[in-house]
Amino acid sequence: MTDHAQESLPEVVYTPASPIEHPTRMIAAMWRDLLASRELAWRLFTRDFRAQYRQSVLGYFWAFVPPVLAALPWMFLNSQKIVNISPTGIPYPAFVMTGTMLWQTFIDALNSPLKQTAAARSMLAKINFPKEALLLAGVAEVSCNLIIRLLLLFPVLWVLDVPFHGHLAWLPLGVACLILLGMSIGLLLTPAGMLYSDVGRGISVIASFGMLLTPVVYPPPTSGVGGWLAAWNPVSPVLATTRDWMTGRDPRSPYFSVGQVRQADGLRQRLLNRSIPASELLWNRFSEETRTNLAATPANDDKAETAAKLVAALNQALASGPLIDPDRLDQLGVSPNIRAKLADSPNATQRMNLDRRWIEESFGADLAPSKGQRFWTSFWWVSGGSLAAFLVAWLLYRLAIPILVERMGG
Amino acid sequence: MSHIQTNNNSAVLVSAAGVSKKFCRSLKRSLWYGLQDITAEAVGHNPYHDQLRSGEFWAIRDVNFDVRRGECLALIGRNGAGKTTLLRLLNGLIKPDRGQITIRGRIGALIALGAGFNPILTGRENIYVNGSVLGLSRTDVDSKVEEIIDFAELREFIDTPVRNYSSGMNVRLGFAVASTLNPDILILDEVLAVGDFVFRMKCYERVNSLMNRAAVIFVSHQPDQVRRMCTRALYLRKGQPVYQGSVHEALRLYDEEDQSRLSRQDNYIDPSFVEASVTVSNHTVEFRGPLTVTLRCHARQQYSRLLIRVLFFSSVEEVAAEWISTNHHLRYDIPANQSLSIDIPIESMGIRPGQYRVGVVVAPEDNRYYLLNLKDAAQVSINGPGNMLHVRQL
């Protein structure tokens, strides 16, 4: 019975010490477990997926019911003018449905770690398996629901005449960041959530409330408390940027979007007033057709339509080449900030962005500064931040599991 | 178990050194401590590991043992003695608060049979899920799935959702999957008592073949199983190791504890009896030697044609042998208000040598109720050779 091969047996030592005392060893173990858990994760995912749909007649229907139901009241309220939502640049139903769908994906991701861990309670209490499988299975489930929703949403967008665009290629990145953000927050809360049921309840309350604090059913506000919230709510830039990608808009675009127009008629009036140097400069860049068109628009016309016309005109001027005349900086009222950047020999795109900022500053009362650019920067900050948060949350989760299992019972 | 040999040349596969674990009785406190512990883990320094916070107690205290390949260590003790906690520590599910556990090689537990089963999915699908949870790869399961189905004797039902299975079928399937693992360390927690008789016999065989090449840790309340399967025993009482060594001695100590729990309160004496007691002629009897059991009693009313049974308990619940008066065509009469001494001569104590407790039951002829049930009336030990496992009629 002597077995000389025993020397090669893998050895595991359990001590009271926290694994965090050996960070490199712990990170290696995390990576190893992540790789080792892929097959189990797939099994758990297919198990839940099959079981979920085997016992249901409507099946996949349930994946897209919640976001559609969340969108319907807003479409109704907006169509009846009960709520006044500023122009969105694309048909409102398309805007609100992409919004609720992306929001639902975020919420799914937020709930996923706690849900998966709680469901695996009895398994965790009895068997030692790589816990990363639960997280990966959660990612698979969230992604699968998202894909089902997208398959429904794209025909809707097509019917609503939303342009499909090359930016769509960025969509996977956008949703990946959205899922990562949701998972990080959810995972950070999971250890406490497994101990206290208050956490799970809190999450669901905040999730339903949070939709209203995030630009899901309305375009990101640019001023006031709404603007502040949109700037500091980490979900906003990720959701708005991803929606831009989905609906054929470049979030980095130097061009104006309809959502920026605060007062369509006021802006038209000021553009027509050629005694303002900025208006005069722009007017000269408009095509003949645009000029007639703008001049002929009655003051009481449909606001959204006027805004669209104005944005088209402004973008035409932007596209016509450099606007700010370096010799007339004072007369054109160019701010010191923009002057400094102009002196810094900008390239064509940077130049165009400076032109746009000058227009935004000149017509500040009627035209909000573009969120797109700022959101674009925030998008990367939030993505990086959620990746870091996820790693921390993952580590914490691993440390917490034995302590949670102690309190679960067999 | 002839195949088990203690072999000191084999490597130690499981080693526990000074292992302690504390628990908290109050749920509220335990949750709060949990939050504290998680924070402490994250900071990398837990000041509470070594001290008991208010409401905590040591569920396991200073346990030491080594198990080598080929050995089988029995963990015995009452419910709540810390056996399951110890198994969870060994499995790495929870962390020790003191001491160190070293595990060498692949660990396999026949504890949670059917973990990860989803009731809506078919047996076949659940084999794959369960296999994955236990660490088997897809190809492992692919190559073993037919064997698993045959072993579980579920071929007809394998494509039926497991929620339509009986609990026995569920456990059979779980056992069949779990036992395809070929672990270096095998943890058994009384799972052997699953299924019907025929399946149990198959389980024993399968477990025996796994035990041959593994270090085994076995938790059971059945002394007979422990005696047959284990080479050593660790007896725990309230988390403290009381004895570690021979199976025989550990079981004897465990039985003593059981006895003291049973005590006289479990004896039944009908109110019509003023007193009842039992003595034996000798406390030590040779194998197949004679023994006389004497019942002394005093009843207020008269009874006639009573039946008497003498029971020999090898442990609290195990009856090793019994003597019934009807088999010997004997009936007893008890007159009213008179102290009486009844001698029951047993010609040949042909039961396996060991310690026995003697119990006496007195019942009316139809045996529908007890008049006396004296469970722990006397002690007798049988000397000599012999190895008979079954209950014998004397």
What is the compact description of this entry?
The complex is a heterodimer of chains A (410) and B (394). By secondary structure, chain A is mostly helical. Chain A has helices spanning 23-36, 38-54, 61-79, 92-119, 121-126, 132-159, 171-195, 197-213, 224-232, 235-246, 264-272, 277-285, 288-296, 303-319, 336-342, 348-362, 371-406; one strand spanning 11-14.
Description:
The complex is a heterodimer of chains A (410) and B (394). Chain A has 410 residues and is mostly helical. Chain A contains 17 helices and one strand. The relative contact order of chain A is 0.11. Chain A folds into two domains: 21-252 and 371-406, no CATH class; 258-362, no CATH class. Mean pLDDT of chain A is 85; it is low at 1-6. Chain B has 394 residues and is of the alpha/beta class. Chain B has a domain at 269-393: Distorted Sandwich (Coagulation Factor XIII, Chain A, domain 1). Chain B has eight helices and 20 strands. Chain B has helices at 27-43, 83-90, 123-133, 138-152, 167-178, 197-211, 223-229, 247-262, and strands at residues 12-24, 56-68, 72-76, 98-104, 107-110, 185-189, 215-219, 232-237, 240-245, 268-269, 273-280, 284-286, 291-299, 303-313, 319-324, 332-334, 338-346, 354-363, 372-383, 392-393. In chain B, the strands form four sheets. In chain B, strands 10, 12, 14, 15, 16, 18, 19 and 20 form an eight-stranded mixed β-sheet that branches. A six-stranded mixed β-sheet of chain B has the order 5-6-7-3-8-9, sandwiched between helices. In chain B, helix 3 (123-133) crosses helix 4 (138-152), helix 3 crosses helix 5 and helix 4 packs across helix 5 (167-178). Chain B is globular. The relative contact order of chain B is 0.12. The chains are: A mainly alpha (410), B alpha/beta (394). The interface between A and B is large, with 49 and 61 residues.
